[in-house]
């Protein structure tokens, strides 16, 4: 199960990296964000791409939760704890986030684009929930990667170097989180959300 979880994790990590890069492009404007998203959708919105991705996510959530409940009482050390608790948050986030995206696409019939993700971030008081919700997801992703990197490499000779590398991954996560939230909120000044998305913010 651990091996399956690790291999599928690499697949999902590849998608998340592209997805986060797309979010980072929001600092250059909505048009730049949308243009990159449209190109990437040719891959991950294809029947094959979406089937592989959704299957990987479902199996990853199930295996991740099983690993969490099996290991939670036996962990020792900062990075082991970081690995299982960030994994738990990511599992919960994926359940909610993927469910919300599929609901938006197939029930609400919305284009789950920039505005779908930005609606809650730019509407008070919903942003009091969505800013920490998305922020914690990005930090958990980088925290999980940092923990796995450390635990996989800790037996290497240059242990101090591995510790520094893991800390660098965590620091990168903090920077990416701030930049993504900055871009999706138009420099924290707010984004005007099209009326089609009012259903998401209770209007």
From TrEMBL:
GO terms for cellular component: membrane. SUPFAM superfamilies: Fumarate reductase respiratory complex transmembrane subunits. The keyword Transmembrane applies. The chain crosses the membrane at residues 7-28, 48-68, 88-108, 128-147, 168-185. Keywords: Membrane, Transmembrane, Transmembrane helix. The keyword Transmembrane helix applies. This is Succinate dehydrogenase. It comes from Mariniphaga sediminis. The lineage of its organism: Bacteria, Pseudomonadati, Bacteroidota, Bacteroidia, Marinilabiliales.
